[in-house]
Design goal:
Elements (H helix, E strand, L loop, with lengths): L1 H9 L4 E8 L6 H17 L3 E2 L2 E9 L1 E2 L4 E2 L1 H12 L4 E6 L3
Parallel strand pairs: 1-3, 1-6
Antiparallel strand pairs: 2-3, 4-5
Length: 96
């Protein structure tokens, strides 16, 4: 994950966004929440900075209320959100 942020720094970016897309409801909720907390703690440890880039963290839910669990359609929608963000430096997806 550091390499894309380093590339962003070399390219002159001031801010990069890391997207996390995990099932925040349903049977995978507890595990996903643990991962999100770990991601947030890792960024806190470096004051949300890598090289000269400020890192913004966005947690997205890839479960839906209708499915009651992980939903591949929502995962695709979340991926589009990240791809459309010019500041996106990384995306994280926990395997189901």
């Amino acid at each position: 994950m550091v390499l894309p942020l380093w590339v962003a720094a070399v390219a002159g970016a001031q801010t990069a966004t890391i997207y996390s897309s995990l099932p925040l409801r349903g049977p995978g909720r507890a595990r996903a929440e643990d991962v999100v907390r770990a991601e947030q703690l890792a960024l806190e440890e470096v004051d949300s900075r890598v090289v000269s880039v400020t890192v913004r963290f966005v947690s997205l839910d890839d479960a839906t209320a209708a499915a009651g669990r992980w939903d591949p359609g929502q995962t695709s929608a979340n991926a589009l959100t990240a791809v459309r963000d010019e500041s996106a430096g990384a995306a994280i997806r926990l395997a189901a």
